[in-house]
């Protein structure tokens, strides 16, 4: 195998990372919207979806963006203007900050935190502030109800999410996401290393809880009480229009993509292929081409996970606010605690 | 057999529909490129056969919305039989239907005793200006081309007198 | 059934109209309106169907399809005569209500004459205590006919704006849509200029 | 099933009582939420004023009238054929069903009866309009609770029914096909075969909806034990149709009334449910669509031959008298009290529409529920704005 050693200067690396970051946020958002929101949903409803803009309507998203950019940026009279304008930015920025810790290849990472998991979970909840602020500053009762519901829900589901990840952290013995990827791909199942050792096998319960919590964090059906377009008229987004609504919209799907990235890193082996296939033993031996191949693998896994998220979204009705709180506190949290306990006992025993 | 939870079944329904759409095509029609043919009896637009109209005002009177406007004058027509007296007939000057008011009930077509009004299933005549929806007698006459034959009736039906 | 109602209400049952296999109409006096409802309810007529009113005066406007060129109709006394329907009556306005017995599959239509007092206000006892569902029906009747219901908690307008004047379903309330536009059914066929003598037939 | 739902009801009520007590102790401030008139959940323009305590409704009051068209006044200036064209705009989703009781009332006054073939076809179209109406309800139910897919399935399959109605009558939404003394026209050739196919599709649609929505545990938890209406209250408010049967009252005008329609020639079941909650109302409607497809299937096989129009004069004058006829419409009992004075048009028509009574119960039933439940309860009561405001 040819080992290409390319030395990229530091400024070049920085530039690549910035561009990569933007791509890592916008690309998933775009593909999710087109592939799932436009096409999969339409096909599930026996229709074709947008077909006019571009071949098979593939340029529809650009048409939509163009439409939103043309629209007037309306600010309600009684709104708290500065905060009102800030809210969508907070939501989007939190997405950008979140993607920072996700590794896409042996060297294709943005930052290599040693406490990456911790950081990701902390930053992930910043968007709550954006949503709450949006709901409050809109000076609209529906928005307020939506914002309050969102705050309650996101806090409630933050907890099972954190607890579900703890199992992975225990098993990998590290909070660094890169280490977690390596641990999965160098692992073996009872000596057989054909597929490495993705944590989804041992941590299936954790994976399930994590995905449910992600669904709730993203306020997708069945946990979309804060948006609930048929009763709260889109909740905290009610008053937003034009450009700011677009940011919320991108933020929603970009966050879905980024959470799917994180889930694939934590449970599905991330960017890696099982190292045994190529006889690698550790991260240092991984070939350089994985820096190109890794992101593609990640993208595939991300698409599968978001596909499931969207599939559920198009099929289910939504929970009531008190029901979803009850579900989080009475079902998910005890389950994830039990998961941690079992994982810890098994880990210590082995 | 254990009961399949409803949550899983629901996912199955949507996925099944997705595959069916991929395999058999969508149930929708891409409108300007492809069109569905409305049934023969569809009440799309009213066509007028001007020669048959005698300006008897029956349709205008039976219209619940008062959307038919008729004006006419009397004139002499050549006699039916050679050597007969010239007949006095009502000649139609104006026959307007205001489609902005019309509620497509079809009473006018039904009451017409001289078979001057017909339904056509044509539906593409929307206008940017509401005033253009007032169709005059030439425009109503043009719709005559689109009037289909009356359909055959289902078994057991009695022929109309 | 009618016999029992007579026994319950005594002289307040004013008239009964029975059509076999079709329906029963009972006219009671307005003071006994609530008692009649209660008595029927006790008999098993516990399904409330509707409550409304009728203005028996013929409309002075007709159907708005007047031909101004036609000669005005002679002042036919019968045209403005008030004729009540089944079960008779004495006043211009009548209350109308219907209750069902869904076990025996029978129903009664109740009527009551309404007599305006000195201020021209007609009052009837409310049925809310008997059938809670009468609430909206009474509001509607109040709005449309101007009949006051005693004991109704709020007789706000149901459909029309709060400051609407007049009572639309009274016959002397003109229907504006038929007033603002001439009837297009007026014969508009010009006679032949030459044959002016016989041109009016059309 | 009943046991479970009773327990759920009890726990729900207890939880609400506890919440209310807590709120009193904390002296929280109320908020008035104005739902509508333009709101995605009020298909049409119904406005609901709800005083909230947190997410709980303390007091709610629907405000109708944004679509009042004054039909009772308008009928007074129209002739009988014109009224038919007008009244199928009352409940615009099941419009053929609106014409039938009025025509029957007029026929009763004129003492004519439609020939058997006309009665048969009338009943078929009546049931088709029920299917068209209620299948949309089933889809709409999903949208009210956040599921986007059922409504598209409903629109997809309702389209077949509308095509049938249009094929026979010429109008998709406003057939205006019923005449005093019979029908305007006979069925076109090939219609019966098409109907047979469509009924199969509709039963398939019912199964799909059942799997997708009714079987869904989330849907069940949203509807079971919510908005319970006991039979006594339902009768007092004059609820009708599926809403009444969901409260356990076995009352269906198709079966319990002698009318010149073909219902006595078919075998169908009237479903009731003992619970009276939102779930029961939705479930009854699902079964009714299935039942309706079976009725249509039976009827299209047995259409008698003959004319579709009785002998009636060309200019219809209805003799003096009063008549009340009501039928079991998709939304519930729809009746017309027709007063005639021997004129070309009716003297007075009192329209008893189902939704008016069905919605008048909302102040009672919305007390103490949560905001999301307002939507599910309204959806399950199923109203059409034109049917409330008339």
Category by helix and strand content of chain B: alpha+beta
**Termini separation of chain D:** 39 Å
> How do the strands of the widest beta sheet of chain D line up side by side?
1-2-3
Number of domains of chain D: 1
| Terminal residue distance of chain B | 63 Å
- What characterizes the major β-sheet of chain D? 3 strands, antiparallel
C-alpha Rg of chain B, in Å?
Answer: 24 Å
Major beta-sheet overview of chain B: 3 strands, antiparallel
CATH domain fold name of chain D:
Cytochrome-c3 Hydrogenase, chain B
DSSP summary, beta strand count of chain D: 8
What is the CATH class name of the domain at 45-146 in chain B?
A: Alpha Beta
Mean pLDDT of chain B: 79
Look at the structure and give the CATH class of chain D. Mainly Alpha
The mean pLDDT of chain D is 82
Question: Which word captures the global form of chain B?
Answer: elongated
Low-confidence stretches of chain D: none
Biggest interface: chains and residue counts? C-D, 44 and 47 residues
What CATH architecture of chain D would you give? Orthogonal Bundle
Overall description:
The complex is a heterotetramer of chains A (350), B (161), C (202) and D (390). Chain A contains 11 helices and no strands. Chain A has 350 residues and is mostly helical. Chain B is α+β, with helices and mostly antiparallel strands and 161 residues long. Chain B has a domain of 102 residues: Alpha-Beta Plaits. Helix content of chain B is 22%, strand content 20%. Chain C has one domain: 2-Layer Sandwich (Beta Polymerase, domain 2), CATH 3.30.460.80. Chain D is built from 15 helices and 8 strands. In chain D, helix 5 packs antiparallel against helix 14 and helix 6 packs antiparallel against helix 7. The longest helix of chain D has 29 residues. In chain D, 63% of the residues are buried. Strand 2 of chain B pairs parallel with strand 8 of chain C.
Topology:
The complex is a heterotetramer of chains A (350), B (161), C (202) and D (390).
Chain A: H1 10-44, H2 60-70, H3 81-99, H4 116-124, H5 126-137, H6 141-172, H7 177-186, H8 204-217, H9 242-267, H10 290-315, H11 321-349
Chain B: H1 6-24, E1 45-48, H2 58-62, E2 68-77, E3 87-98, H3 107-111, E4 117-120, E5 134-135, H4 137-142
Antiparallel strand pairs in B: 1-4, 2-3, 3-5
Chain D: H1 2-26, E1 31-35, E2 47-53, E3 56-63, H2 71-74, H3 80-87, H4 95-110, H5 116-144, H6 149-169, E4 178-179, E5 182-183, H7 191-214, H8 217-223, H9 231-236, H10 242-246, H11 278-301, E6 321-329, E7 332-340, E8 348-352, H12 354-360, H13 362-365, H14 371-381, H15 385-389
Antiparallel strand pairs in D: 1-2, 2-3, 4-5, 6-7, 7-8
Helix pairs in contact in D: 3-4, 4-5, 5-6, 5-7, 5-11, 5-14, 6-7, 7-11, 11-14
